[in-house]
Amino acid sequence: MKEKISKKFEELFNTTGAFYASPGRINLIGEHTDYNGGFVFPGAIDKGMIAEIKPNGTGKVRAFSIDLNDYAEFGLTEEDAPKASWARYIFGVCREIIKRGGNIQGFDTTFAGDVPLGAGMSSSAALESTYAFALNEIFELNIDKFELAKIGQATEHNYCGVNCGIMDQFASVFGKKGHLIRLDCRSLEYKYFPFDPEAAGYKLVLLDSVVKHELASSAYNKRRQSCENVVAAIKRNHPEVEFLRDATMEMLNEVKADVSAEDYMRAEYVIEEIQRVLDVCDALEKGDYETVGEKMYGTHYGMSKLYEVSCEELDFLNDIAKECGVTGSRVMGGGFGGCTINLVKEDKYDAFVAKAFAEYTKKFGHEPKLYNVVISDGARRLA
To answer: Which Enzyme Commission numbers does its entry carry (predicted)?
Structure first.
């Protein structure tokens, strides 16, 4: 990939620049916990974005996307916003740095990525983090890593129309090989936990259903509303409760008669999921991957039956994982399509993949996609 980027850079700009990279991410456990003040548990992966960059001494950015075979040129003031959506990510990062007082000049860049698009591994956060990290270093801005992640998040909010949380950008900037990061979505405190399934004889595999159901945004808002309804009910007896993260199952049961059955189910899932993240962290500190797997299945059950954000295709892949003796499997991401993430013993891997492909294709008329992932480092300069 680097060669391809370098060749195009030289062809377009007749010079050479510095290389920077940032990864996509997976989230092992902790789904729909972020807006409830809970924990998420992501890790950076060995797939991401790579860019070659060099200041060009002008007030203009000249950028080329190799994957889209598209060129864009734009200035650095608000009126210069480019039309192409991919270019708006780079422009947004520049603007967010400038808003924070960073002095950026024009630069030339070419970039490419190997994060699968639409598979829930956050290719956009990888792109934002690559440029935030690179521009910070190239223009010697001394912005700390937390702020770099926030610059990526603000780019999504202000220039790309996506009101995302901080997890994706955080994982892309802070990723560390062989470790997952437990991020407290309320305080933004974080802690690294060892995660090296290969050393313990496991593989981490994503199976992409290659479907995306259209319910996602309205269903997401509805579930968020359910959580807020329950917090409001609990708060009457327990004023200290601000998020479901502060609530216990006892508190939830106290208000069972005051909330709808649907709201109760949604809250039950979230309270249990927040606890599962903590249980998985404890298990990893002991190297106990069996417990990790068991909790992943618990998450899938909760997302399917209580939060109701799974779909037939994802439930089918989860059932096959169970039949094949896969250690852990669950839907990854917001739901209604996308991937399952699977923790598979090496000696069961071939049989699981073969069965999943054969049975899924027979049932749904198209193959799933397979991605093996390795937990890797975050944003960095490449030698």
So the answer is: 2.7.1.6
